[in-house]
Design a protein that fits this description.
The chain is α/β, with parallel strands linked by helices. It folds into two domains: 92 residues, Rossmann fold, CATH 3.40.50; 154 residues, Aspartate/ornithine carbamoyltransferase (Rossmann fold, 3-Layer(aba) Sandwich). 42% of the residues lie in helices and 15% in strands. It has a five-stranded parallel β-sheet. Helix 1 crosses helix 13 and helix 6 packs across helix 7. The longest helix has 20 residues. The protein binds phosphoric acid mono(formamide)ester and norvaline. Norvaline binds next to helix 7.
């Protein structure tokens, strides 16, 4: 059966742990020798493109990055025909799409794994990199740790809270009431036995938190909502005073790109509690781990 990764819950918790373990292999076997991986981007990317291309190269394969305007998904030809075509040549297809449904349509026709490189709904590779970062910082065992998510309950947040539920990490989310996590994800967290509390008060969320995680207030594709969002999220700025309310030794996470002065203060993201650069580095291990798991 062809496996795909549209969100982190396409893996079972034990499969997720296997991917995390494989990601730690700094000298991985060349499981992609002579094979290609297509990487299609409908939105800009720095980390995901670099980490994906390098991961494929380090596994002996050839990454082919294709910008959306070169293939014209649903313009030049349908998303299905793009997937059918690319699967004639490539061992896997990664795609960063505006609309998650495009990935679902690609999965329906693809004979090779489809990997979500970020959609409006999910960012599973980011969640894998985030868990690697926390595992490395906390010494392996994640269970019983607490992370405060402060800000938008969007794609990165959704995959992250699911990944936390799958690995025993408790999450408290502080979001504006208008931008809470969707009910289906809340229910899925419960099915995984996860502990998730939602509040609209950031000071409550960060109490006893071992990490504080935030994301941009205006995600790619939401630029038309900028004015409303900057107002709604203003109370959710992660500054030094909010960091000071978390547990002693608490760390700061951000998927990047970041907007200093909006969701995070420069003194926090550039300060000693910040893990954002190891977190970015772990995106390479995350993609390697996933490809190793798919092709070993
Ligand atoms: N975090 C992340 O996915 O970064 P890019 O958008 O630069 O790929
Ligand atoms: N939520 C952000 C994440 C970028 C990696 C976005 O979708 O733009």
């Amino acid at each position: 059966m062809t496996r795909h990764l549209l969100d982190i819950d396409d893996l079972t918790p034990s499969e997720l742990n296997a991917v995390l373990d494989l990601a730690a292999d700094e000298y991985p076997p060349h499981v992609l020798t002579g094979r290609g991986v297509a990487l299609v981007f409908q939105k800009p990317s720095a980390r995901t493109r670099s980490s994906s291309e390098l991961a494929v190269f380090q596994l002996g394969g050839h990454p082919l990055t294709i910008r959306a305007d070169e293939v014209g998904i649903d313009e030049r030809e349908s998303a299905e025909d793009v997937a059918r075509t690319l699967s004639q040549y490539h061992a896997a297809i990664g795609a960063r799409v505006l609309d998650h449904e495009v990935l679902v349509r690609m999965v329906a026709v693809s004979s090779v794994p489809i990997v979500n490189l970020l959609s409006d709904r999910a960012h599973p590779l980011q969640a894998i990199g985030d868990l690697l970062t926390l595992r490395s910082h906390w010494g392996g065992n994640l269970a019983g740790r607490r992370v405060a998510w402060v800000g938008d309950a969007n794609n990165v947040a959704r995959s992250f809270v699911l990944a936390c539920a799958m690995t025993g990490v408790d999450v408290v989310m502080a979001t504006p009431p208008s931008h809470r996590l969707d009910q289906a994800t809340v229910e899925e967290v419960a099915e995984f036995g996860g502990n998730l509390v939602q509040t609209s008060v950031p000071e409550e969320a960060v109490k006893e938190a071992d990490a504080i995680y935030t994301d941009v207030w205006v995600s790619m594709g939401q630029e038309g909502e900028s004015v409303e969002r900057l107002v709604a999220f203003a109370p959710y700025h992660v500054g030094a005073s909010l960091m000071g309310l978390a547990a002693p030794g608490a760390v700061f996470l951000h998927c990047l790109p970041a907007h200093r002065g909006e969701e995070v203060a420069a003194e926090v993201i550039d300060g000693p509690a910040s893990l954002v650069w190891p977190q970015a580095a772990n995106r390479l291990r995350a993609m390697r781990g996933l490809l190793l798991w798919l092709f070993s």
